[in-house]
Every structure is written in C-alpha cells, then in structure tokens.
Design goal:
The protein has 386 residues and is an alpha/beta fold. Helix content is 33%, strand content 13%. It is built from twelve helices and twelve strands. The strands form three sheets. Strands 1-10-9-2-7-3-4 form a seven-stranded mixed β-sheet. A hairpin with a 7-residue loop joins strand 5 and strand 6. Helix 7 packs across helix 11. The longest helix has 25 residues.
C-alpha cells in the first residue's frame, strides 16, 4: 500500500480573491448596518471606546496572543449584523479583525450561493439540535470555532486530499471551497461527513480570531427584557482554546422593535424610527485572575488526566468520551456557562435594569414551554428562530 501524500501546509492566508470578496461583502453589510442603525433608527452606545481599543490591539494577527469572545442576549433575528453598525467605517473593511459567528446550517447554507455569501461573511455552518440530529455542542463546527480562538498549526487541522468528501459542484449543493488557495481541496472540513466548507482556522492570519456568540440559541423577546438559559457551547469556546480568550459581555436593546417576532406584513422589512442600545462590558477573560481562568485550570487538569489514561494527546477541539460526558467535565461546562450568563447580567444591571428572577437562568424553567419552540409563550415572551 502506498503511503498517503504528505500534507502541504496551508498558505498564510486565504487567496486574494477570497480576501477581496470577504472585505467587500463585510464592508457593504457593515456600512449599511451603520447607516441603518444611525440614520433610519437611533442607537446609543456605551463602552465603545474601550472595545475599540481591544480591537486596535488585535489588528496585527502576528501580535495576537489570545482570541476574543463577545457574548450577548439575542432579541432580533437581525441582531447580527445590525449591532456591528456601531463600529466606525474603518473597522468594517478588515475581515482579519472582524467577528466570526455561528449561523444556522438549514437556513444560511442551503445552496452554493448562500454558502458562499455566508462564508465570505465569516459565519460557520451550525446544525441546530432542534432542527437536526447533527446539532449539539460536539458537532464539527464547534471544533472549528475552538480552533479559530487558538493558534495553528493543529494536529489534523483540515481534510487531506484522500480523506475529504467529494465536492458536489451543483448549485443546489451547499459545498464550497476557496478554489484559489485550496486546489487540492485540503483546507476544508465537513459538518456531516458529506458537505464541504472552508476551514478558516488553517490560516495563520485567522489565529486567535474574534467570535460573537448568542448563547440563548434563539431569539427571545420578553417584556421585562430577561434572558433564557444559556446553552453549553459557549463553555467549550472558553475552556478549550490554548489561551484564555478575552471575553467581553454585551447587552442589546431595541432591535426587537425593528424586527419583532409578532410583526405583520411585510415581515421581511425591518422597521425604522426605533431607538436601540448597545452596552459593552469590561473584559472578564484574558490573563486576569478571573473565574474563567480558574475553570480553565481545572479543565486542563481533566485533559491531562484523560490523555494519560488514553495514552495519547488530543487534537485541538477534539474530545474523548470522558471529556464530553464525564461528570467533572459536564460540571465544569455547566459552571462556566452559569458564570458567563452572570457576566452578561452584570452589564444588564449596569444599564439600570432590575435583577431578573434567578429561575430565568435554569433549564428546568424553560422546560415548561413543552414542545413549543416558536411564537408567543405563556410568560408573554416571543421566541423565534435564530
């Protein structure tokens, strides 16, 4: 049997056509979001200067030493990209220093056109557990997200020419690659063993990237401006990268009036003359002595113990069954998720809102919804797909 061909390291960055396409798309969406949020509507912003200083320190990918996570409540199907309209124009045209996000596979990646647009717009195809058995916090896209918050190269960082699934070239297929930088289809990953998407974590210029997360996992519009419980995927993004990311909690208001779940026809048209708000909190991650650093120390201990038991190391973002389902691992993810939700609540409190009922953050509270996942709930809130 012949040995498989050696894996060629990827170039430092995606191809020039891909970078230009991403810059143009993100710039177009960002600039239009800025105009929409500040001309068609009004937006008050708090803490932006401090956040921009964080982005300025991260401008050169070579000098980054950790990733960045922003995390917020989710009140509108168009929160992203609307909220990034608060960034000045000069920040809209640099994909290397702009956010990545998780986007619904069954909505945003249904064919080649959508896949190309949303990939250039720096979103990752994510299966939602309520709509696909492939969803959950251990799906391949979560591995890709962990790697985006880390430093390449990684063990088995992308598909090899012999292991990658064939690319379906029909327009109805979601499969895409960057044909200019991956002629051998090597810098990709699959979400289900069949589809094919670019693996941005393979490139040096994507090291220690910025990811924005809506941990509620769905739009939640409550008259008291409370939040749902947070899903555990956010804990993976905090615990598993090679360095503790900077973590900046945010609070959003007003976007629910732009695209309310109860809106009438034309539902697809955002409303205008609304007042919105974006609050940026302080960094609760990084190299400071925070609860997240302590949780990461406990996580690294679990990983070391499991690697010793297995007799091998694990690739970045790849977990053994013990690290997925073990009692201590589950408890760490649960506590990490509780702490990040508390950090978002602290920004909400600083904004001037009264403390919510502690039961709002419990999964059991929301089980009372039964099988209903969208529409108006018994507590008066509206819930929608994200």
């Amino acid at each position: 049997m012949e040995d498989p061909p050696p894996q060629v390291p990827p170039p430092r960055q995606p191809s020039l056509p891909w970078r230009l396409g991403s810059s143009l798309l993100m710039g177009f969406v960002g600039i239009n979001s800025r105009v929409f949020m500040n001309v068609a509507n009004s937006t008050e912003v708090h803490g932006l200067d401090k956040f921009l200083r964080t982005l300025d320190r991260r401008k050169d990918p070579e000098r980054r030493r950790r990733g960045l996570i922003t995390v917020s409540n989710h009140i509108c199907v168009m929160d992203d990209p609307f909220i990034w309209g608060v960034l000045p124009f000069s920040y809209q045209l640099d994909p290397n220093n702009h956010r990545w996000a998780l986007a619904a596979h069954d909505i945003c990646f249904t064919n080649k056109v959508f896949s190309t647009l949303f990939s250039l717009g720096q979103t990752l195809p994510t299966h939602r557990i309520g709509h696909s058995p492939l969803g959950g916090l251990f799906q391949p896209t979560m591995t890709e997200a962990v790697r985006l918050l880390s430093h390449p190269p990684f063990t088995t960082p992308y598909s090899s020419p012999t292991s990658a699934p064939p690319v379906d070239k029909s327009l109805s297929s979601p499969d895409i690659t960057d044909p200019f930088s991956s002629p051998n289809h090597t810098y990709t990953y699959s979400t289900n063993g069949i589809d094919t998407f670019p693996a941005p974590s393979a490139y040096d210029t994507r090291q220690y990237s910025w990811i924005h997360v809506f941990p509620e996992g769905r739009v939640h519009q409550h008259p008291q401006r409370t939040m749902r419980y947070f899903k555990w995927g956010i804990a993976r993004l905090i615990l598993e990268p090679d360095e503790c990311p900077d973590i900046i909690p945010m609070w959003l208001e007003g976007n629910d009036q732009i695209m309310h779940e109860a809106r009438k026809w034309p539902k697809f048209v955002p409303r205008v003359n609304k007042h919105c708000g974006v609050w940026f909190g302080d960094n609760v991650g990084g190299d400071a002595s925070t609860v997240f650093n302590e949780l990461r120390r406990q996580w690294r201990r679990l990983v070391a113990e499991d690697e010793k038991k297995e007799g091998r190391g694990f690739a970045m973002g790849v977990l053994s069954d013990g690290l997925k389902y073990g009692k201590e691992a589950v408890a760490l993810r649960e506590e990490c998720t509780r702490q990040i939700r508390a950090a978002v609540l602290a920004v909400r409190r600083k904004r001037g809102l009264a403390d919510e009922d502690p039961k709002e953050g419990l999964v059991d509270t929301w089980r009372q919804e039964g099988g209903k996942t969208e529409g108006k709930m018994e507590d008066g809130s509206w819930v929608g797909r994200t």
